[in-house]
Specification:
The complex is a heterodimer of chains A (about 220) and B (about 375). Chain A has a domain at about 65-190. The radius of gyration of chain A is 20 Å and the shape is globular. Chain A has helices spanning about 5-35, 50-60, 65-70, 70-90, 95-105, 110-135, 135-140, 145-165, 170-190, 195-215. The termini of chain A are far apart. By secondary structure, chain A is mostly helical. Chain B folds into 2 domains: about 55-230, NADH:ubiquinone oxidoreductase-like, 20kDa subunit (Rossmann fold); about 230-340, Cytochrome-c3 Hydrogenase, Chain A, domain 2 (Irregular), CATH 4.10.480.10. Helices cover about 40% and strands about 10% of the residues of chain B. Chain B is built from 17 helices and 9 strands. In chain B, α3 (about 35-45) packs across α10 (about 200-215). Chain B is elongated, with a radius of gyration of 30 Å. Classes of the chains: A mainly alpha (about 220), B alpha/beta (about 375).
Chain lengths: ~220, ~375
C-alpha cells in the first residue's frame, strides 16, 4: 500500500467504518443513559424548580469564586484547549467542506494562519494539562488508563493535522492520511469512553440543576 | 566550444549563447551548482561524434503515445527537441522511419552493439494478464521485450505514469493485469518520470544529467528525480495565498473562479501531488492546468485514477455515510436491548427487596 492508497483508504472505507461505529455507539449510549430512569421522587419539592436546570447548564461553565486562583491550570488550560479544539474543528476551511459534505451546512472559516496559531496554543495547553495531571498527586491518583488513552486520542488529531500543514517529519500525503486515521480512532472510541461527555455534558447539568432546585438548592 | 551539436543548433538558428543559457537553466532547475551548466553544455556538445553518441532505446508498451507527443510537440522546434541530437535514438516506433522487420533489426542491432551501455526508455505499463497477450510487439509480449531489453541496459527511464506506476491501464479493476517497470525489473537503476504526460523539460533534464555525469540524478522513494518532484504543486502554486485566506472557487464559473481563487474545493489534488508544473509550467512556460482554471488531477502520483474523483475536494470523503443507516439502526437496537435488560434488572431488584420492620431491628 503506497501513501496515496493509504490516503484513499482512510478517506473511503476507513471513514465509513469509523462513522458507522461512531453513530452506532452514540445512539446506543444515549438511549441507554436516558432510558435508565429514576425512582419517582414522591417528596414535595422544597422549592419551585424554575429554570434551575437551564441556569446550571451555563453556571457550570463559569468557575466558582476563588477556584481559578486555587487551580489555574485546570481552569485556564481546560478553557484554552476546549475553545481551541472547537475553533480548529469548526472554523478550518477544509473541515468546513467536510461538514458541508456530510450535513449540507456551512459557514465562513478563518484564515489558515490563524488556525495554525490556535493549533499550537491548543497543543501547548493540552501538554500543560497533561503535565499537571502527572505532577499533581491527587490528579495522578484519580487517573486511570482511560484518562491517558483519551488524552492521547484527542491530542493526536491536532498534532498530525498541524504537522501535515507544516510539512513536518513525513510527506504531506502520509501525514494527512495519519491525521484522518487519528480522527477515525477518536470517533470510534468517543462513544465508549469519558469523551462521550461531548454529548452528555449539558443533559447531565440540566438534570442535576433540576434535582437540586427540587430539593431546595436552586441556581 | 565546438562540436556537432553546436553546429546543428547553429544551422537551425539557435546560437551558442542560447544553448549555454539553456544548459544553465537546466542545471539550476535541477538544483545543481552553476558550474554544472557548463559541464552539461560541454558533455552534450562533445558527445555527438556519430559513433560515440549514447544509444537510447525507447520501448512503447500499453500507452497512448501521449508521452512521446509531449516531448516532440511541446514547443517544437525547440532546444528540448534538439537534445535528441545529442543521443542516438535507435528505436522509437513513433518517430523512426523503419517499420516491421527493419525496425526489429535496428532494435536488436542497437542492443548488441551497445550491450551494457544503452539507456532504455519505457513508456506504457506491462500487462501480465492472459500471459501478457494484451500487448505484443513482433510476436513478443511486452514482458518478454522488457526483460530482454533491460538485460543490457545501463539504466532504465520509466517515462510517464503508466511505466512508472501502472497508470491508467492499472486503474481499478485493472483488466489487463498492468504493472509498472519497477514491478518487474529489480536489478537496474530505474528513474521514474511520472506524469500524464510528464513535463518535457523534466525528461530532457534527466537525459542531460545522464549524458553529463553518467549517473542517475538523486531520486525520492518513488524513484522520481528530487529536483523536479521535490515539492508539491500546492506549495508552489501561485493561488496558494487564496487557500490560506480561505478564498475558494465553488464552481468553475462563479465569482471566485473568475478572480482566480483556490481550486481546492473543486477537487484540486495539488496538496498531495509532487511535480514541477507550478514552477516549470507547460508549452514554453505559457500556462499550466491550475493557471488555466482546472484543479490538479495528481497525474504524477501512483494510482491517481482511483484517488476518489477528480472533482471531489481532498478533505471530502468518498462515501462517508455508506454504513450510517445500518449503524444507526444497530445502535438504536443495542440501546433498546440494554434498556430492557436494565429495566428487568431493576424490577427484579425491586421484587427481591425486603422491607425492614421494627421487629427486624429489635432482633
Amino acid at each position: 500500500m503506497n501513501e496515496m492508497q493509504f490516503l484513499t483508504w482512510v478517506r473511503g472505507p476507513g471513514l465509513d467504518i469509523a462513522i458507522g461505529i461512531f453513530l452506532l455507539g452514540v445512539l446506543w449510549r444515549l438511549i441507554e443513559i436516558y432510558s435508565l430512569g429514576r425512582k419517582v421522587d414522591v417528596a414535595p419539592g422544597r422549592h419551585r424548580d424554575g429554570a434551575s436546570g437551564l441556569h446550571t447548564v451555563f453556571r457550570r461553565s463559569v468557575p466558582p469564586p476563588g477556584m481559578i486562583k486555587r487551580s489555574p491550570v485546570t481552569y485556564i488550560g481546560g478553557y484554552v484547549f476546549h475553545i481551541g479544539l472547537a475553533i480548529i474543528v469548526f472554523l478550518f476551511e477544509p473541515h468546513i467542506i467536510l461538514i458541508r459534505d456530510l450535513t449540507g451546512l456551512s459557514w465562513p472559516g478563518l484564515p489558515s494562519q490563524v488556525i495554525d496559531l490556535v493549533s499550537v496554543i491548543t497543543l501547548g495547553a493540552m501538554l500543560v494539562v497533561l503535565a499537571d495531571r502527572i505532577k499533581n498527586p491527587v490528579k495522578r491518583y484519580l487517573s486511570t488508563f482511560a484518562d491517558w488513552f483519551t488524552w492521547t486520542l484527542t491530542f493526536l488529531p491536532v498534532l498530525t493535522g498541524w504537522m501535515a500543514v507544516q510539512h513536518l517529519l513525513l510527506p504531506y500525503t502520509t501525514m494527512l492520511a495519519l491525521h484522518i486515521l487519528s480522527v477515525e480512532l477518536l470517533l470510534i472510541v468517543l462513544p465508549f469512553t469519558k469523551l462521550f461527555h461531548a454529548f452528555t455534558v449539558f443533559g447531565s447539568r440540566w438534570y442535576l440543576g433540576k434535582i437540586n432546585g427540587h430539593r431546595g438548592v436552586p441556581v | 566550444m565546438q562540436g556537432p551539436l553546436i553546429d546543428t543548433l547553429a544551422r537551425r538558428g539557435v546560437t551558442r549563447r542560447t544553448f549555454f543559457k539553456y544548459c544553465a537553466t537546466l542545471a539550476s532547475l535541477m538544483a545543481l551548482p552553476p558550474s554544472a551548466g557548463r559541464a552539461m553544455a560541454e558533455a552534450m556538445a562533445a558527445a555527438p561524434a556519430a559513433s560515440r553518441r549514447p544509444s537510447v532505446i525507447w520501448l512503447p508498451f500499453q500507452e497512448c503515445t501521449g508521452c512521446t507527443e509531449s516531448i516532440t510537440r511541446s514547443h517544437s522546434p525547440s532546444i528540448e527537441g534538439l537534445i535528441f541530437d545529442a543521443i542516438s535514438l535507435d528505436y522509437q516506433e513513433t518517430l523512426m522511419a523503419a517499420a516491421g522487420h527493419q525496425a526489429e533489426e535496428a532494435l536488436h542491432h542497437a542492443m548488441k552493439e551497445n550491450e551494457g551501455k544503452y539507456l532504455l526508455i519505457v513508456d506504457g505499463s506491462i500487462p501480465l494478464g492472459l500471459d501478457g497477450a494484451y500487448s505484443c510487439i513482433a510476436g513478443k509480449t511486452n514482458l518478454e521485450a522488457l526483460k530482454e531489453a533491460a538485460k543490457g541496459a545501463a539504466a532504465i527511464v520509466a517515462m510517464g505514469s503508466c511505466a512508472a506506476f501502472g497508470g491508467i491501464p492499472k486503474a481499478n479493476p485493472n483488466p489487463t493485469g498492468a504493472v509498472s517497470v519497477s514491478d518487474i525489473i529489480k536489478d537496474k537503476p530505474i528513474i521514474n518520470i511520472p506524469g500524464c504526460p510528464p513535463i518535457p523539460v523534466v525528461m530532457t533534464g534527466v537525459l542531460a544529467h545522464y549524458l553529463t555525469f553518467g549517473t542517475v540524478p538523486e531520486l525520492d522513494k518513488l524513484g522520481r528525480p528530487k529536483a523536479f518532484y521535490g515539492e508539491t504543486i500546492h506549495d508552489r502554486c501561485y493561488r496558494r495565498p487564496f487557500y490560506d485566506q480561505g478564498k475558494f472557487a465553488k464552481t468553475f464559473d462563479d465569482e471566485g473562479a473568475r478572480k482566480g481563487w483556490c481550486l481546492f474545493e473543486l477537487g484540486c489534488k495539488g496538496p498531495v501531488t509532487y511535480n514541477a508544473c507550478a514552477t516549470v509550467k507547460w508549452n514554453a512556460g505559457t500556462s499550466w492546468p491550475v493557471e488555466s482554471g482546472h484543479g490538479c488531477l495528481g497525474c504524477s502520483e501512483p494510482d491517481f485514477w482511483d484517488g476518489g474523483g477528480f472533482y471531489r475536494a481532498l478533505s471530502r470523503p468518498a462515501d462517508p455515510l455508506k454504513m450510517a443507516a445500518t449503524a444507526a439502526a444497530v445502535g438504536a437496537a443495542a440501546g433498546v436491548a440494554i434498556t430492557f435488560a436494565n429495566r428487568a434488572k431493576k424490577s427484579s431488584a425491586k421484587a427481591a427487596h425486603e422491607t425492614v420492620t421494627l421487629a427486624d431491628l429489635e432482633k
